[in-house]
UniProtKB/TrEMBL annotation:
Keywords: ATP-binding, Kinase, Membrane, Nucleotide-binding, Phosphoprotein, Transferase, Transmembrane, Transmembrane helix, Two-component regulatory system. Its EC number is 2.7.13.3. It catalyses: ATP + protein L-histidine = ADP + protein N-phospho-L-histidine. Gene3D superfamilies: 1.20.5.1930, Histidine kinase-like ATPase, C-terminal domain. The lineage of its organism: Bacteria, Bacillati, Actinomycetota, Actinomycetes, Streptosporangiales. It is an enzyme of class 2 (transferase). GO terms for cellular component: membrane. It comes from Actinomadura logoneensis. Residues 303-397 form the Histidine kinase/HSP90-like ATPase domain. The chain crosses the membrane at residues 17-39, 45-62, 69-88, 119-135, 141-163. This is histidine kinase. It comes from the Bacteria. It holds the Pfam family HATPase_c. GO terms for molecular function: ATP binding; phosphorelay sensor kinase activity; protein dimerization activity.
């Protein structure tokens, strides 16, 4: 199996760690500059804003227990503002800029990621200290700066809610893609089961007609062959029906009102690997595609053939959209040592000349289909360059 996705995940993880280290370093440097500005404090209260700003900066960069750290930062800011306003103490508040900036970041993150039941409370809690921070100077400052600060808070809340809506829309689209793929596979399996049940009925009717017509009795070999065909068709139909029922149960949880159940969408006919050859032949010459079918594939179950067809179709579509600089796309279908079928689509593109934006859900639906037939799918960059999509689909020996 290719290691591309694992390597890509490690690169992303290292990049995220470096980004956090840089952010922490910048925050620490800014706080040190603020501390240097009040290195000769006129009174002990001059260091309090720096300490609160440090707490707020740490809360902004927290990855775990963000809600708790946001509440601590907001509470510390409110406590300092209330204390200074009550005592009437003037302080050197050069760190207020980093404090307000950090609180605005926390407002955005609360509106974006806070649990649904606490998003309003946490957003309000973190917004309040921003609006009343001018009280540390005087009430006149509060009157003059409260409105501009409230506008900044509103912008931060709007940004967070927009990001929250984008995430929710993406989750719904991903769920819809998975549901549609499950329903499409269920329709394919339904056609397969109907085919075999029809065969069972025809075989049974033929045996009954032969027994009631008074014709010469059939030989034991003929009867054995007839009942063997009925047994095989029944076994395959039951196996596919069991899988189909499992898919429909999963899809029912994600179904929306007025969904595709009654949409009457056309289903792909269940056939053989010639459909895959036709798919590759019709891919075109930009870039050209080649197909290599192993000689030992034999007869494959229809659900395996349709899954192979779906993998090739999605991978070729992605190659056409995102690998404009590729010189060739190679499609191969082969048997592995354990009897499973491996279908691989590889190109040599380097990511230049990207033609179309990514929808983001094709591979998710494809993984759902492959997983439904107990297979596994990997997609990622190749060590020698280019991209590959590889699916391994088990084949029942029954």
């Amino acid at each position: 199996m290719p290691e591309g996705p694992d390597r890509l995940a490690r690169v992303q993880s290292v990049g995220g760690c470096l980004f956090r280290v840089m952010a922490l370093g910048c925050a620490a440097l800014y706080l040190l500059l603020c501390l240097a500005a009040v290195y000769r404090p006129r009174n002990p209260w001059d260091l309090a804003p720096v300490a609160v700003a440090a707490v707020v900066a740490y809360a902004c960069l927290a990855r775990r227990r963000l809600t708790r750290w946001a509440a601590i930062a907001a509470g510390a800011s409110l406590l300092l503002t209330g204390t200074l306003a009550a005592l009437g103490t003037a302080v050197q508040d050069q760190a207020a800029l980093v404090e307000v900036t950090g609180l605005l970041v926390l407002v955005t993150r609360m509106a974006w990621t806070a649990p649904q039941s606490r998003v309003v409370a946490m957003t309000a809690l973190v917004s309040l200290p921003i609006v009343i921070i001018p009280l540390r100077g005087s009430r006149l400052l509060l009157i003059g700066f409260a409105a501009p600060l409230a506008v900044l808070v509103a912008i931060a809340i709007g940004t967070g809610l927009y990001l929250r809506a984008v995430d929710a829309r993406r989750r719904r689209a991903l769920s819809d893609a998975r549901r549609d793929e499950r329903l499409e596979l269920a329709r394919d399996l339904h056609d397969f089961v109907a085919h075999h049940v029809t065969g069972i009925v025809v075989q049974a009717q033929a045996a009954r007609f032969a027994a009631s017509s008074g014709a010469a009795a059939q030989s034991p070999e003929q009867l054995d062959r007839m009942f063997g065909q009925i047994e095989k068709a029944g076994t395959e139909a039951l196996t596919s029906m069991r899988r189909m029922v499992g898919l429909l149960r999963d899809a029912q949880d994600a179904a929306r009102p007025g969904g595709a159940a009654g949409g009457g969408g056309a289903t792909r006919p269940v056939g053989d690997l010639s459909q895959v050859a036709e798919l590759v032949d019709g891919f075109g010459d930009a870039p050209p595609a080649t197909l290599a079918l192993a000689d030992d594939l034999g007869a494959l179950p229809p659900e395996v053939v349709t899954s192979v067809h779906r993998v090739v179709q999605e991978a070729l579509t992605n190659a056409r959209k995102h690998a404009a600089d590729a010189t060739i796309v190679r499609v191969s279908v082969a048997r592995l040592g354990d009897g499973s079928v491996e279908v691989a689509v590889r190109d040599d593109g380097q990511g230049r000349g990207r033609r179309l934006p990514s929808g983001g859900f094709g591979l998710a639906g494809l993984a759902e289909r492959v997983d439904a037939v107990d297979g596994r799918l990997t997609a990622g960059p190749r060590p020698e360059g280019g991209w590959e999509v590889v699916a391994v689909i088990p084949v029942s020996e029954d």
